[in-house]
Specification:
Residues 146-458 form the Penicillin-binding protein transpeptidase domain. This protein has 471 residues and is of the alpha+beta class. The chain is built from 16 helices and 19 strands.
């Protein structure tokens, strides 16, 4: 099920099927790390961690520290950072190195996590990460180049942030020869393990962007409902161009939005974007969080882009299928899914639940970015209905297996490298705590193959394991 694009622009997008269905970490950490008591039996977190402890402050996941520190015996740097399950949480913690600086939360809260003059931690950072979800996504991605994000659609709490291949920040936390060797090897690795792909890498989102286009069309009133017939030829010729976009199946001709989402009809959404115009489409995309260069969680997030001024008519049509100059991080696409699940509202994502100082005081989270209503509740509800009707097109067990509160969409989009591309998956479901949760997965270096459905399977498989961990 895919659309073909023929012509000078040479853009290929395939399989966008959609559906709406519904760590174990050792607590020890290091010689100076403090072990928290586990979560209570009802799933709530304990908050009785000591407010002060020797060494560097800790980053906690599920109330257990995943960092620690050890004494170096040196006056200038008396403590060196240690990590528990470093590779699993590297995209969350970042790194702290006496020789190579800090990154991630280690940098954003460097002052809080530092030791004070007496050698005690200045404070601790409690993350929002769900260790079960984090491990499920990490294990499912394996060593492939990719990323996965999960967030609470109502609160914005990030429940999983995974980037692979990963690295162990403990291997270069000091300043010795072994640390320098590990640092050089990571920087020389062509797979870029130090890059946080979940937050810092953008790519063409392909057919997952259809959700934004459909939302814009409903908001503008191009169609009164997702069941209205569209005026969409099976083969659509882009304006002022000879490039053709052909629907994935005969059913894509004049397909209503609900059917077009189910069948991954690029012809429908390319024409829809052209009918909307670049300005209208960009306006709605920005309400979903695109073109926001100030988003922090508090780690700085790369800007996801919907083309701004001067977009040509053929480029506007390509925008409708998540190609051309559209670029998105996995976090951005997770926020799109979250908005559909949250009645059309976009909330600020955050990695941090609370920051506690040694004196018992609290530090406000350092997050920023656009929030508010992306689309009306009526539009969000219509999208949910459309995605719900298409559940069997994406998930291996169909909508009945996953539950009535889940929606999902998958896509494969070329990246122009030797016929390979990226498999994408976005979804939302009802979380274990009663809140809707949204996920996004991107797996790179995937061949298109003869069957585009199979091309997206790697991302779908990761997404299904992540959804299961969250449910």
């Amino acid at each position: 099920m895919h659309s073909t694009i023929r012509g000078a622009l040479g853009v290929s997008s395939a399989l966008v099927a959609l559906a709406v269905l519904s760590a174990g970490c050792d607590q020890g950490g290091s010689p100076t790390g403090s072990a928290d008591k586990p979560a209570t039996g009802d799933g709530t977190r304990r908050t009785d961690r000591a407010s002060s402890h020797p060494g560097l402050g800790d980053i906690l996941v599920g109330d257990a520290p995943v960092t620690g520190s050890r004494r170096t015996g040196e006056d200038k740097a008396p403590f060196e950072r240690t990590y528990t399950d470093g590779a699993l949480y590297a995209a969350v913690t970042g790194f702290r190195s006496t020789a190579f600086g800090n990154a991630g939360l280690e940098s954003a809260y460097g002052d809080v996590l530092a030791a004070d003059a007496s050698g005690n931690a200045s404070g601790d950072v409690m993350t929002t990460i769900d260790p079960k979800a984090q491990k499920a996504a990490f294990d499912a991605l394996g060593d492939r180049r990719g990323a996965a994000v999960a967030l609470d659609a109502e609160s914005g709490a990030l429940l999983a942030v995974v980037s692979t291949p990963s690295y162990d920040p403990a291997t270069f936390s000091g300043h010795g020869g072994a640390d320098a060797k590990a640092w050089r090897a990571l920087n020389a690795d062509r797979r870029s393990p130090l890059l946080n792909r979940a937050l810092r890498e953008v790519g063409a989102p392909g057919g997952t962007f259809h959700v934004v286009v459909a939302a814009a069309a409903l908001e503008k009133g191009l169609y009164a409902s997702v069941d209205d017939r569209t005026d969409s030829p099976l083969t659509y010729v882009l304006p002022q161009s000879t490039t053709r976009v052909t629907g994935a199946s005969p059913g894509c001709e004049d397909a209503p939005i609900a059917r077009a989402l189910s069948l991954s009809c690029d012809n429908v959404f390319a024409k829809m974007a052209s009918d909307l115009g670049a300005d209208e489409l960009r306006s709605v995309a920005e309400r979903f969080g695109f073109n926001d260069d100030a988003l922090t969680v508090p780690v700085r997030v790369a800007e996801s882009v919907c083309p701004r001024a001067g977009v040509s008519p053929p480029a506007t049509a390509l925008t409708g299928i998540g190609a051309g100059d559209v670029r998105a991080t996995p976090l951005a696409m997770a926020r799109v899914a979250a908005a559909a699940a949250n009645g059309g509202r976009v909330v600020a994502p955050s990695l941090v639940e609370r920051v506690t100082k040694a004196d018992g005081g609290a530090v406000p989270p350092k997050t920023s970015g656009r929030t508010g209503r992306a689309v009306s509740r009526g539009t969000a509800d219509a999208l949910r209905d459309a995605l719900g009707a298409a559940a069997d097109e994406v998930l291996s067990g169909g909508g009945d297996k996953a539950g009535a509160g889940t929606g999902a969409r998958a896509a494969w989009v070329t990246d122009g490298r030797d016929g390979t591309g990226s498999a994408w998956f976005i979804a939302y479901t009802d979380g274990a705590q009663g809140h809707p949760v949204a996920v996004a997965v991107r797996v790179e270096d995937q061949p298109s193959g003869a069957d585009p459905r199979k091309a997206a399977e790697p991302a779908v498989a990761v997404g299904e394991r992540l959804l299961a961990a969250l449910s």
